[in-house]
Design goal:
21% strand; single chain; 2 domains; D-amino Acid Aminotransferase, Chain A, domain 1; alpha+beta
Length: 164
């Protein structure tokens, strides 16, 4: 749970795989979490600002090979982000509302990124809220800013300005 970037995630298809994953987790010096697998399309929503002045960007779709967005995939840059064209307007608004609620509950003042899976049935699953989203060239937040037409430098200036 505390290692980030999907490090230590084990996707188990059999009871033998589950047993091996639990043994590995118990051998570590960190807490572990068991969750059901959520099949669907992954989306991310970045929220900036604080309180009622927070702004949720449009969702981006995160596309990758494999069954989940693994640490290896993230490290290798083996994924891409695009506008969430497969979502309806109502679904976009729902994801933005959920992300803003999480941002406010965490009392965030800078940026958060909430990751979702939307299943084939339209069901929404919140995967995580990242309270310190990455800012590297391979990170989701800068890509989401670019897709929204926001210059990365302008975002950084606003972030610094909010801290002064």
């Amino acid at each position: 749970m505390s290692q980030g970037s999907s490090i230590g995630v084990a996707l188990c298809h059999t009871s033998a795989e589950l047993k091996a994953a639990l043994e590995a987790a118990r051998a570590g010096d960190f807490p572990y979490l068991l969750e059901p697998y959520c099949a669907g399309t992954e989306y991310a929503v970045t929220v900036t600002g604080s309180g009622n002045a927070s702004t949720a960007f449009l969702p981006v779709e995160v596309q990758y090979a494999g069954e989940f967005f693994s640490a290896a995939c993230k490290e290798s840059g083996g994924y891409r982000m695009s506008e969430a064209r497969s979502l309806s307007g109502a679904q976009c608004t729902l994801l933005q509302d959920y992300a803003k609620q999480a941002h406010r509950l965490l009392r965030a003042t800078a940026a958060t990124r909430t990751d979702f899976i939307v299943g084939a049935d339209g069901g929404v699953h919140i995967l995580e809220v990242n309270a310190c989203p990455g800012l590297s060239a391979h990170s989701i937040l800068p890509a989401q800013l670019a897709l929204s037409g926001t210059r990365f430098a302008d975002y950084l200036e606003s972030l610094i300005g909010a801290c002064i």
